[in-house]
Amino acid sequence: MKNAGTLGPVIILLALGFSACAKKDAPTAWKGKVTVEDGVRVIRNPAEPLYGELALDLEEDLQIGREDDENYIFGQIIDVQMDDEGTIYVCDVKTPIVQMYDRNGLYVRTIGKIGQGPGEYERPMRMALLSQPRRLYVQDMMRLKSFGPGGEYITEILLKSFPYAFTVGGDGTIWAALSAVSDEGRSKELQRISPQGETLQVLGRFTYDIYTKRESATTTVSFTTGYEYDLHLAKVDASTIVYGHSKDYALEVVGADGKPRLRIRNDEPAQEFTGEEKEKLAKFGTPGHKPSFYGLTTDDRGRIWVHRSNPLATRGQKREYDIYSRDGYFLYKTRLIYGRQFVVKNGALCARHVLEEEGLEVVKRYKIKNWDAIKDSAS
Known about the structure:
Layout: E1 12-13, E2 33-37, E3 40-45, E4 53-54, E5 58-64, E6 77-82, E7 88-92, E8 97-101, E9 107-110, E10 113-114, E11 120-121, E12 124-130, E13 135-140, E14 143-147, E15 153-158, E16 163-168, E17 174-182, E18 185-193, E19 199-207, E20 211-214, E21 220-223, E22 231-237, E23 240-245, E24 250-255, E25 260-266, H1 275-280, E26 295-298, E27 304-307, E28 318-324, E29 330-337, E30 343-345, E31 348-355, E32 360-368
Parallel strand pairs: 3-25, 4-29, 10-11
Antiparallel strand pairs: 1-29, 2-3, 5-32, 6-7, 7-8, 8-9, 12-13, 13-14, 14-15, 16-17, 17-18, 18-19, 20-21, 22-23, 23-24, 24-25, 26-27, 27-28, 28-29, 30-31, 31-32
């Protein structure tokens, strides 16, 4: 058996003790404000969600991963994706390998292979899906390699710097948070990149602190604390992207052309550092307040899931997510355990999981039984 790794989150979802998807006493009227700034609609949300807390009614219906077949053994799952047909893709950074399974969890094929040639990779790190035409994009350090529905290699894009996150628009345009260095220090740029790898637009440059420590005359170690303000992005649909820099609780929604369509704001006050946290981080220097969020995810109904809990500080504990409609209204709060990387699509949730007793990494799929009852708008 391969050793189970520690990289990547495990998802266990916590039922909050009631079957309805929102509290009965949820407010019936939205208490925010809509304004227009520079011709762009701005949704200013109150700190509390319109429909209260959400309990996902989950029923596990699939597990992929076992020890008796090499096509189902994972070393260290770093990403999981699911397409519109229910096909599941698993990126294993330790092997390294990308595996494809059908909606019933049966092995279909291995996509690409280890190497440095066309259609090969050394360290697969992230994946993104394109529906029309069907494409799977795999990040291999600074390269994005695309594959067709039959696993055939299509092309490779060499980016100009390392991408910390990326997604692919419906026209094949790449959206990526790329590392950048200038006289002002380290940062991340949000770039819109052509299918050929040329920069079409830089939407902004955002602070991202990386700390360094000299280990020897020839060795320097770089690291982060987990409390840095960071740039996050996700695809809402084929022609819409949402992004935000976590210094403020503010999200920007842009179209395929990079032009702003919507701005989402939340009035919740910034979270302050405790005295213990300040002491622990003193040698690095803490920012003015904690990051407002730690990641973005979207589902296939265009809802935006804002990760509110630090995955490093809350390891093994409940984590909070804010859920917004595609038009910017704060709908729900929900809680997950070890839940940073997950996919919600077609009324199901798919995620990496570790079977603690066996030390086995698997992928689990859960049917969301109350999926149709979850609201996707403020009306």
